[in-house]
Amino acid sequence: MRNIQSLDIKKFLPHRAPFLMVDYVISITDEHVATAFEIREDDIFVVDGLFSEVGLVENAAQTCSSIVGKSYFDEDDIEGKGAKLIGFISAIKSVKVSACPKVGETIRSDANLVSRFDADDYSICTLSCTVSTSGKELLSCVLNLFIQKIDEY
Q1: Residue 127, class by beta-carbon neighbours within 10 Å (0-12 exposed, 13-18 middle, 19+ buried)?
Q2: Is 91 exposed, middle or buried (0-12, 13-18, 19+ CB in 10 A)?
Q3: Fewer beta carbons under 10 A from the terminal one: N or C of the chain?
């Protein structure tokens, strides 16, 4: 089994700085993913030293998209050359924010696939996600995502 933390997440997600909200994948299967993200002072979602609610939702969405996005790449594709994907939140079914993390903290996001519909070049899915730091839950949500394979971006 390869060390997935050594994979460059930018090769698999279409997001780029300053909008990339995942530093690395801790673990991933077809139905679950765990990611980590360090809150930095210059992050676009940091307000008065706290990572905002919007940032937490975006982190959850990027984490969730990894599960479905994974299926568009071959298992041995460590360069992210197998597919170009775009995706967006099509619905926020529920969201509960308990607290916002501080600059310097690292958040862990755990997402689980609830349902998935695949067509020729796109997937529609429902996922649940929790975001925490130091064992304290910060956010829980259920999102619908639309993920599409495209020629280029």
Answers
A1: buried
A2: exposed
A3: N
Please state, rounded to an integer, the average pLDDT across all residues of the chain.
Answer: 85
Q: How many domains is the chain built from?
A: 1
**Distance between CA 134 and CA 79 in Å, rounded?**
32
- Answer whether 49's CB lies under 8 Å from 8's CB: no
CA 39 to chain centre: 15
> Which structural domain, as residue segments, surrounds residue 26?
4-150
pLDDT in tens, 109-145: 999 999 999 998 899 999 999 999 999 999 999 999 9
**DSSP-assigned letters across all residues of 11-60:** GTSS--TTS----EEEEE-SSEEEEEEE--TT-TTEETTEE-HHHHHHHH
46-77 burial: b if 16+ Cβ within 10 Å, else e = beeebbbbebbbbbbbbbbbbbbbeebbeeee
Q: What's the predicted TM-score (pTM) here? A: 0.87
- The CATH code of the domain that includes 97 is 3.10.129.10
